[in-house]
Design a protein that fits this description.
heterodimer, A: alpha/beta, Rossmann fold, 3 domains, 6-stranded parallel beta sheet, 4-stranded mixed beta sheet, 22 helices, 10 strands, globular, B: alpha/beta, 2 domains, 4-stranded parallel beta sheet, 8 strands
Chain lengths: ~450, ~250
Amino acid sequence: MEQKHKEHSVLAEAFNNNEPRVNWHDETLWWVRQKRDKMAWTLPEWEELREAASQIKHNVLGNLHDYLLAFEKNAIANGAVVHWAADAAEHNRIVLQLLQQQGVKRIVKSKSMLTEECHLNPYLAEHGIEVVDTDLGERIVQLAKEPPSHIVLPCIHKKKEEIGDLFHEHLGTPAGNADPKFLTAAARLHLRKEFIQSRVAITGVNFAVAETGEMVVCTNEGNADMGAHLADVHIACMGIEKIIPERKHLGVFLRLLARSATGQPITTYSSHFRKPKAGQQVHIVLVDNGRSRQLGREDFRNSLKCIRCGACMNTCPVYRRSGGHSYHNAIAGPIGSILAPNLDMKDYADLPFASTLCGSCSNVCPVKIDIHQQLYKWRQVLTKEGHTKKTKAAGMHAMNIVLSKPGLYKTAGGVGRWVMRTFPAVVNNGMNPWYKQREMPEAPKQSFADWYKKNRQ
Amino acid sequence: MKVGLFIPCYIDQFYPQVGIATLSLLEKLGCEVVYPQGQTCCGQPMANSGFEHLTAGCNELFVDHFQGFDYIVAPSGSCVLHIKDHLHVDHKEVAATHIRQRIYELSEFLTDVLKVENLPARFPHKVGIHQSCHGQRGLGLSQMSELVAAPFSKPQQLLQMVEGLELIDLKRTDECCGFGGTFCVFEEAVSVKMGKDRIADHVNNGAEYITGNDVSCLMHLEGILRRQHSHIKVLHIAEILNAGIN
C-alpha cells in the first residue's frame, strides 16, 4: 500500500514530539468547543434546530438535481453566469480561463474550502497568476507556505510569536512584535492595498438559495465583501451540495453555523449576493468533484449535509492532539476523514482509522451527520477494497481463528498468560507499541472461566 | 429471572476479579445467573478494525451461548454496544434479535431492569468516573456534554448509593481516554497522550480511584498509571458496587 503522504499515525507521532505544544493546541481548540457549548445552551430549541437543519439538507440531497437547476435559472435571471465543473481540474480550468480573459496576474480570494480541495492556488501559480488569500488566517498560512490546518481557523496551529516572525519577514513589521492587535492592523493595511488593486475577486459560498439564485457568504472579517464589491469580476466557487431550497431556511442555518463554529451568535458578516452591480460580472462555478459519487453511496450520502463549521474538529480528542496537517487533506478532522476516501480511497485509507469512534463529532454536528458511524463503515469498505496492510490483515485472520474456537481461545489464553508471567520480556519490549509508554496488564493464573468452573460448577 | 453472564475476552483473561464482582453482585441482588462456558468474544476488535466480515464465527458462538436467557448482562458498555449494533446470524436471526434487544451493560441493568434503589456497599474513597464513550454516547448511560438536554447518569446514580464514596468533579466530564480498540497500538502516540490527559484531570481533582463501565479503557489508563508509578488505582464499577457486600 504505497501512499503519496505519510500516514496519519506517523504525522501524529511527530506532532506529539512536542508535548507542551500539543497541550496548547488541545486547550485552544477545547476553549472553542466550550464557547460553542455555551452558545448552544442559550437556545433551548438547540436540538430541534439541529434536527430541522438535518431534515432540510435531507430534502436537498434527495432533490439536488431540481434545486440545482432552479438555482441556475434564477442566478442567470439575476444576471450571473453559471458554469458547471465535473471535477477539480475542470473547475481550475474555468477559473483560469476567466482570469486570462481579464488579463490579470494577481487576484484576491476569500475563504473557500472548495478551492483548497481543488488545489486552485498552486494551479494558478503554475499559470503565472498569484492568489492573495484575504482571510487573515488563510493569509498567515499562505505566507508560511502551508495549507490550512482547520477549515474555520486555518492557522490555529500557529502561535502569535510565529505569526509575528512571519509578518516581520513578509510585511516588514518590527522584529519580535507579536501583539495580535498590532499584527491584525498590519495585515489590514497590507490586504487593503490588495483589495483596491485587484480587478477579480474569488469567494466561496456558504449557502446558495435555489428559490432566489442568491449566494450567502459568511465571514467575520468582511473580506469577501471587500473583494467582491471592489472587483470588476466576482467569481464564486461552490460545491453542488451548498444549495438550500428557500431563503427562509437561512434562519435555521445561520443560527447554527457560527454558534457551532466559534461560539458566536452569528458571523459578523452574512452577505447576500444576488444581482451584479452595474458593469460587474458575476460568475458562479458549480463543482461536483466526487459529490454525485458520494450521493450515490447510501451509507455516506449524508456527509454532504456538512456546512463546514468545524465543530467536529474542535471536539475531536484525536484532532486536538494530532493537528490538522496530520490528516494530509484539505479538510481535516472527523468530517475530512469521511469525505476524503470518496476522493481517493488509496490515498486516504488511513483517515477513517484516525479515530477512537468516541462519537463526540456526531453529537456536535449541527446537521446531525452520523460521522462516527460512517468512520466505522468506511473501515469496512476500505478493508474490502484491499487498502489494508498485509500484517494487519494477517493479525485479524489469526484473531478470528482463535476467537471462533472456544477450545483454542482457552488454550491460547492460558499459554499467553503463562508466557507473560514467566518470560515477561516476550511482550515487554520495543516491538510492542502498547509497552512503549504503558505497562501490560498483570496476567492472572486463572481466567474467569477457570474460576467459575471451580467455584460455581 | 434468568440472566446470562457475558464476560468479554480481555476481562476473562486479565481481569477475572471484575467478572467475579459482577457475578456476585447480580447474585446478591437476587438474579439467577449462568455463565455459559465456551463463550469467547463479541467480535468488536475485528469489526472496528474494518474486518466485520470476519466476525461470523464470533457471532454464531455468541448466539449459541446466549439464546434462551431473559437477559444478557456484561460489565462492558463497549462490547454490549457492539452486540446491539452488529450481532446478526442469517439462519439464527430470531435468536440474534432477541439477544440484541435483551443485552444490557451492568449499570443500566441495575438501574433500569432491577431498579436498584440502594446497595449495602461501602467504599470510603475519592472516586472519579471515567465515562467510556461507547457506554455513554452509544448506550446512553448518561447525558453527554455536547447535547442540550437534562443531566442524568446511571453509573453516578449507583455510585451515590455507596457509603463513604466521594465523587470528584472533572474539568472535562466525558472526554475519550484514547483506548479505541486497535487504535491504542496503531495510533500509539495520540492514544497515550489522550490517556495521560484523562489521568491528569483525575489527579488534579484529587481522585484516589478511577472507575468506569469499561475495563478496556481502565486497562489503558492503568497501564499509563503504572508506568508513571502513580498511587491512583483503577477499579471497574462492579468492584466498587460489590465492595463491602457480604
